[in-house]
Amino acid sequence: MLRRDQPLALFMEGATDADLGKMGHGVLRYSPNPIACVIDSELAGRDVMEFGRSPRSAPIVGTIREAAALGAQVLVLGIAPPGGLFPPEWFPALDEAVAAGMSVVNGLHDRLEPRYPQLKPGQWIWDVRVEPPGLTTASGLAGKLTNKRVLMLGTDMAIGKMTAGLELYRGLNERGIKTEFVATGQIGIVVTGAGIPLDAIRVDFAAGAVEREVLRYADAEVVIIEGQGSYVHPASTSPLPLTRGSCPTHIVICHRAGMAGLRRHPHISIPPLREFIKLCEDVAEVCGTYPRPRTIGIALNTAHLDDADARVAIEDTAREVGLPCTDPVRFGIEVLAAAL
Question: What are the tens digits of pLDDT across the range 112-123?
Answer without folding.
Answer: 999 999 999 999
